[in-house]
Amino acid sequence: MADVAERVGVSAITVSRAFKRPELVGPELRQRILDIAQSMGYVPNQAASALASARSMTVAVLIPSMTNMVFVETLAGIHDMLLPRGYRALIGVTHYSPEEEERLIRTYLQFQPDGILLTGTDHTDVTRTYLSALSSPTVHMMELLDEPGSLSVGCSQEEGGRLMTTHLLERGYRRIGFVAVQLDPRTLSRLDGYRHALEEAGLYDEKRVWRLPDPSSIHLGAAMIDRLMAENTDCDAVFFCNDDLAQGALFQCQRRGIRVPEQLAIAGFNDLPASAWTTPTLTTIATPRYAIGRHAAAMLLDLMDGKEPPRRRVDLGLTFIAREST
Amino acid sequence: MADVAERVGVSAITVSRAFKRPELVGPELRQRILDIAQSMGYVPNQAASALASARSMTVAVLIPSMTNMVFVETLAGIHDMLLPRGYRALIGVTHYSPEEEERLIRTYLQFQPDGILLTGTDHTDVTRTYLSALSSPTVHMMELLDEPGSLSVGCSQEEGGRLMTTHLLERGYRRIGFVAVQLDPRTLSRLDGYRHALEEAGLYDEKRVWRLPDPSSIHLGAAMIDRLMAENTDCDAVFFCNDDLAQGALFQCQRRGIRVPEQLAIAGFNDLPASAWTTPTLTTIATPRYAIGRHAAAMLLDLMDGKEPPRRRVDLGLTFIAREST
DNA sequence: GACGATACTGTTAGCGCTAACCTTGACGGG
DNA sequence: CCCGTCAAGGTTAGCGCTAACAGTATCGTC
Fold first, then answer.
1. How confident is the model at residue A130 (pLDDT cuts 50, 70, 90)?
2. Which of residues 88-107 of B touch A (CB under 8 A)?
């Protein structure tokens, strides 16, 4: 920067301002500075800038998984909101583990992020301590928080589970199963919604609930159909905790000649792109994941600007999508 | 850091060493420093460290798309290699645009990355200038470079196109179509492979090639089947440039009652998880994308350590997977 | 003609850390 | 007993930038 300043015949601070506070520099001088900087191959040093200004222009984003489209789309929403404002996202993948999340937080705090976006609400005590000691704001995505003062953008997973179960009941199904995998808090909330809806109808039966800690996959969904058949289940409908699983189930039903929905109805969650194209098409619930990313980032931008966001808890709702599989 | 040093009763550099060069500090003193730092909530400032040491411990990674599983899995390979060594990835999404890539490079150079991972080989001249002026190493992923001195890890897309086309010829198909979307260099290489194989067999016909700039999707694959039918194509097989498209085509064939492969054979590229489960299952070519990420990152680590990597051009090959759709 | 407002540009100091060099004391060999 | 060696820790200076404050010229206004 000093070299550029010398070549232009100004002081270093003017070069700095030409880049960071353009309105403070005369237009033609500014252009000359930028041109000469460009020709010299000068690029500002972000580390030095961060050190001097105490603003890293960085937001730490922690998501549970990269291979799950849901979170990738959330990330896209975050990116689209942050990049135009000059912020960069530092992405961490927790693999659904609060301990891994804690480790990542510790690492990313070294970058002095100006804001933090977390997925979900289950964090270790140490994570909570770190965050509360921090001056940078933290917004929670996906689930909604009720604690006063906390910031969250998401939708009610429990309501989603309830919605789908109610739909199945309305369609006349009475022996509705639930397949929960991964067993992260969002899955368990959907299971809660399912259970409450069935309990209210007097139809809840623990033996129709399958809980598996394995990660979700099409393969596992297909395997679950085989297992249900082997166990001679009496289910007339199965609500899978997400679309990957449900798609795998549909594929396997087709292979085995199980008629869906006549013999067995199948429902999913999240509305992945393929779910509109399977045979039969999959009844599911669309989650506003891209919008969640955008809103969470927007809320964070407000806070980083020192402004109070319009709302501290934003419920973006769910969209029920009835298709052929139920 | 100074506060921690004072509490422990040592100088700042000893605290610094306790974190960054543990072998230079006595074991029990080191433990005391770490304990006290922890209790005080001290976290090293990465910006200051980067400024003082001229090492950002950061690698810039540019990929074309985040919603395409292929690149997400590459990213996973990179992460798994870099994180244990203390490096962080700065992820940029170019949306298949060399101009966007140039913009991102400019932005990320501000972070003084210790290394750079790029996807593909088509870059703007400005990008090339930036990179050659840089002391940090750059590794190209996916495609292979022949220029001496250049670093690349990938597989031959052209060979992939050729492999699949040869397979279709062997199965007796004679009027083989090709659907190319996105039209990025990798897609076009596959198209080249397809064309060369057909030309050698004397069966290439331009009218059986569809080129669309649109992004790939299941929806588009399904739409292409409708279009082929409307255009009354004489194709007995269609080679789609990737699995998303091919899956959409399979779904639509099923809907329309087109028997695959008897009436129309369908082939894809990449081997996505669902391709083993569709009805019929999809013939495709598996690309070693996770391994590409790992190898590229490993090569970069060598270079950042000042070591010469074992090889500067690594071809990880392709795996042909014959399934029911052909 | 004095004055304040406005628009630019400059000076000084320091952000938090680490490279490079330096000091100290313990130890062992000849 | 001297000297070299080594382990452990300290001193000094500076990485490249920007916040805060300090000019300086220009202009309009009363």
1. confident
2. 88-91, 93, 106-107
Give percent above pLDDT 70 in chain A.
100
The pLDDT tens digits for B47-63 are 999 999 999 999 999 99
Distance from CA of A76 to the nearest CA of B (A): 8
- A24: CB within 7 A of chain C nucleic strand: yes
Q: What is the pTM of this model?
A: 0.92
Q: What residue of A is the nearest CA neighbor of B257?
A: A279
* Contact status, residue A118 vs residue A128, Cβ threshold 8 Å: no
- Which nucleotides along chain C are within 7 A of a protein C-beta? 7-12, 14-20
pLDDT at A34: 94
Question: Cβ separation of B46 and A89 shorter than 8 Å?
Answer: no
Residue whose tokens read 């906390």: A150
Q: Which residues of B touch A72 (CB under 8 A)?
A: 66-67, 72
